[in-house]
Structures are given as C-alpha cells and as structure tokens.
Amino acid sequence: MKRFVQGDSRTQSFLLPEALDDYVTDTNPVRVVDVFVDELDLLQLGFEGVEPALTGRPSYHPEVMLKIYIYGYLNRIQSSRRLEREAQRNIELMWLTGRLAPDFKTIARFRKDNGKAIRNVCRQFVMLCQRLDLFADALVAIDGSKFKAVNHRDRNFTSAKLERRMQDIEESIGRYLLAMDTADRQEPTIAKARTERLRDKIAALKEQMRSLKEIEVRLNAAPDRQVSLTDPDARSMKTRGTGVVGYNVQTAVDTKHHLIVAHEVTNNGIDRDQLTSMAKLARTEMGVDKLTAVADRGYYKSEEMLACHEAGITVFVPKTVTSSATAHGRFSRDDFIYDPQANEYRCPAGERLIWRFSTVERGLKLSKYWSSNCQQCALKENCTPGPQRRVARWEHETVLEAMQTRLDHAPEMMRIRRQTVEHPFGTIKAWMGATHFLTRTIERVSTEMSLHVLAYNMKRVIKLLGMSAVMEAMRA
C-alpha cells in the first residue's frame, strides 16, 4: 500500500479522542435542524409529553423525537425501522440526539400521536419564510398530484370493479365444473386426483365470492360507493395512463423562490373544487392581503372563479374546451360576441341573438339567446344542426370574461405555473421512492406529507440564504 493515502489503524488508541462535534462541520444542515427545533415552543404547538410524568419510566423528550424525524425526511429516511438503525450508527444523528437511540415503535408512535403538532411545525417554518420576506411577490401556482397510498389496487373496490370480479369468479367456477365432468370420464385414479384438486379450487372461489358479497354490503353503504380494505381513506383516482389508489395532494407554491406555502391532502381525485380553498389558505400562510394565483385548466369551474373574485383573489385559469360544436368543427361559443349595452350576441354571420328567457341549470342562473333567422343563414351548416343556435350566458359571466382577458394579456402565466409547481412534486416523489406514503388514513398521511414539505422548504431556504443566515433568523 505504498504511495497511497494511509488510514488510521482500527486498534489505535488516542489519548484525547475526538468529540462528536468535530465530525459535524459548521455547514452541515443538521445544525439547522438542531437550532430550528430548539427555538420552537413545543408545548404551544401541541406536542404530548413536553412536561415529564411524575411516575413511571422516563420518556424521550419530544424535542429529540422531532429532530430525528426532520433529519430523516431531510435525508430520505422515512421508515421508523430505518431511523432506529440510523440512530445507532449515523454520526450526524448521534450528534443531533446526544447518542440517544429510541426503538422503532417509540419513533413510529411519536408521529402517530403528534400529527397535528407536526403539521403546526411545518406552518412555523412557513412563518419563518414570511418573516424573511420570501413571499414578497404574492404570486402562487396551485396544482394537485396523485400519491400512492398503502393500498393495492386489488384491495380497492368500486361498483364496476366488484361486478367484474364477481363475473370473473363465476366464469372460473363454470370452467372448473366442466373440467370436473371431463375428469369423471378419465381413469378412476386420474379422475379422483383431478376432481379433488378442482373441488379445492371451486371451494376457494366460493369463499372469495362470499367475501365479495360482504364487501358489496359495505360498498352500498359508502357515501362515494368506494371501499378500500387496507387504508380506508384511500381512493381510486384517474391519472395519465393507469389509475392509482391513493390521495390527491394539493399545493400552492411561491413563484419567486419555489417554496411550498400551503398544502392539503385530500381523497377527492378531482381538482375542480380545490382552487378557492387553496388560494385562501395560501393567502393566510403568506400573511398578505392580496394574492394572485395561477392554475391549470383542471381547476376551471365557474363557481370557483366567482368565489375567488369575491374573496379578492386574482386568478389565472385557462378555460376548458368542452363544446361539442368545436369537436365537430362548427363555430365555438367564442365566435359569438356579446354586446353588454344591448344585452345580445352577434353571430359570425352578423345576425343578432336576442335575450329570450332566464332559467336555472345545475344551480346556475342562465340567460338564453338565439336568433329567428338561423333557418335562412348561409353559415348554418358551420353553426348548428338544430333549428337555431342557442347561446347560454351565466349571470356572472363578466367575471369569467375578465379572467380570460387577463390571461390573454399575460400568456406567460402558464409557463410560470409549469416551471413553478411541477418540480416540487417530482422532487418529493423521488424522495419518497416507489411506495410514496407509508402511513394509513388521511390524518396520518397529512402528517407524513407535512414532514416532506418541511424538509423540502428547509432545503430550499438553506440553498437560497445559506446556513448562517437561516440559523441567525431562527434565533432572532
């Protein structure tokens, strides 16, 4: 081994052994975790066990357990069993906890029993970002992404899936019965062996059918007609390509520094009803009076646009194209120009579509317009297959038109949305690995997501401001 860098002998003794602090550099992120948790008021945040019990075995202080979890999620170690091993061999974690090494059950129980308090810790870091003036632009991008739950597809049932499963079992039983008839015509020794094997298969299928009948009763009683056996709160959701059984995580991300200012875990696979609640939550977390939010077309819903307008939140959401006329190559609704003074529309042929009556559809008050000259129009084939082309107008249509005008004058908003809100989801999913969430039920999953968001934001702020500035702000 000559002319190579030489290491120390494993059996060498030292008169003055090195301290743990010598192994943790001043620029190690673990020091930020230590300062952050030390400055928290754990009792006010709602942690259990802050005050020690007068009797019984001494417990670990919540401060130690919280440091273990934040360190674990910063370093892509989410499992309680893995955290137990790391506490026994990881020098950084030994430094952080003072060589304490709780067992995995204690670690897991802390996360289970202090879910709300851990979520409050995530909010505390967002408030720190607010004090550091990192949300000055008051512009956020809102999006949702599907995360897999601890529930396999085969243990999630909808009415259609249950019906298909029962039909498959009935067909399999029919095939086995025919096979038994065929086996009866074989030699007695062969027939006996085949018949016994087929009877066992049929008995197993009948047991599966009995279980499916029990699930059908639960399915009919469920409000959303869906049952998950492993994680009762997980739901089957559509994604690009194949579906996923999991949760729909909503986030609002600051467009300047790409910090997650607000997040929420839902088991509703559709984003259309989430815009107002997420925008209001982001505004509260950022501590601003006025907020601008941008989202993709999956959030377009007339009632949500109106709610944001009434709340003083400016939104940019592209309109969804659902018109059958556009799909068949005919004039779209945008080809009809509204005249607010005359309260009428002008069609591509120059004809006037006047107001006829008002009605209520799906809870929305609509006015209907059409012209009496459609039958003689030369452009009728390009307009409508019916007697006349009718146009409906919502009573708050001006709100939608104002938003479309804003979007036409700021087309870069969609590019800003895409480059802001997409990569945090990709980063967090990469940290999670293939399994995504490790816990069950929406409350515990929300706690787990808060730890991921806290770790993500902490890394971003350290990257933006540097270690010294972050720790100084935490101590201030």
From TrEMBL:
It comes from the Bacteria. Keywords: Coiled coil. It holds the Pfam family DUF772. Residues 19-112 form the Transposase InsH N-terminal domain. Residues 195-222 form a coiled coil. InterPro entries: IS1182_transpos, Transposase_11, Transposase_InsH_N. Residues 234-458 form the Transposase IS4-like domain. NCBIfam families: transpos_IS1182. This is IS1182 family transposase ISPa7.
